[in-house]
Amino acid sequence: MIRFAPATPADDAELRALLRAHSMASWVTMAVEREPSFFGGMNRFGCDLAVIARDGDRAVGMFVRSEHPVHLNGHPVQTGYLGALRIDAGYRRRVRALRDGYAAAFAAGEQGSSGFCYTCIASENRPARRLLEGNLKGLPRYVEVGEVIALAMPRVRGKVLGHWHPMRPDEDAAVCALHNAAAASRQFSPVLNPMTLVATGADFFVCRDALGKPAACMALWNQNDYKQVVARSYRQPLAALRPLYNAVAAARRQVTLPRPGQAVDQTYLAFLAADAKHAPMLTELVADALAMCRTAVLTMGVSTHDPGLQEIIARFCPSHYRMTVYTVAYGDPPGLDGRPVLPEIAVL
């Protein structure tokens, strides 16, 4: 019988092993790892609970339920995000095990949280999507609500423009208000407050208007010390052609592909927002952020409905990674009013 229990530091090595062993399939198979400590990256935005599944003494699965504040239909709500879902291959068709696991995930929700969760799955991971969309008896219902594209942009495409300045301590409330006013137009976009802002550990910057007030904000968030995205393998023919691809990409100032087993040297461009006057400057603001980045790659999430998406792609020639966003609920799914879906990928 499989047992589910909250993970403790004593489970750290097994949790990290599960993350290393189970990758996300796409054109590049990637593993999201947490080295050297699984718990080193916990509670950076909201409250995280890791649960480990054991068959006897053997660890056979895990998940993390994160409770954090997001916007839903323009209003702040506290809801759960299901992440780091890893299941040994031999247990993925055991409906009882899946049923018990999801029951544990929903039971872990905090009082006052919404009755549903949301999650993201690599759009090209067809086996996982078929399984979870299958509406198996006793499992929560997965409803697709949109798609997010992670854009990995090369630092060499940056341009120093002088728009961004470090946020002053007395600007935190203004930055949160600015961010939330813009984020309310997106589903599952984060709700910032001064406490969550500090807890991230990210470096926040502002672009000030003529009166010296924040008119745009963003964070450069390097998580490499506690969370890594590791390339495990590539599909053919890319696997064989990777050295040639990298030579051409370097010459064209594009992102090169890490060798199998190597982590992406990246920083997240997170919590990007601007007022109405500065919103048309988005591409310039991204170019300036790229110039400030200290890693080879700057990664940001955009909605497939973002009107500036094509301009960003044309200017920065990023690599793309598509993720499908789902709501997960036992009852009726939440009613969404048609706003584009854009969770902050840096907190997932």
TrEMBL record:
GO-annotated molecular function: acyltransferase activity, transferring groups other than amino-acyl groups
Alphabetized InterPro entries for the sequence: Acyl_CoA_acyltransferase, GNAT_dom
SUPFAM superfamilies: Acyl-CoA N-acyltransferases (Nat) (SSF55729)
Domain N-acetyltransferase stretches: 2-158
Protein name: N-acetyltransferase domain-containing protein
Taxonomic placement: Bacteria, Pseudomonadati, Pseudomonadota, Betaproteobacteria, Candidatus Accumulibacter
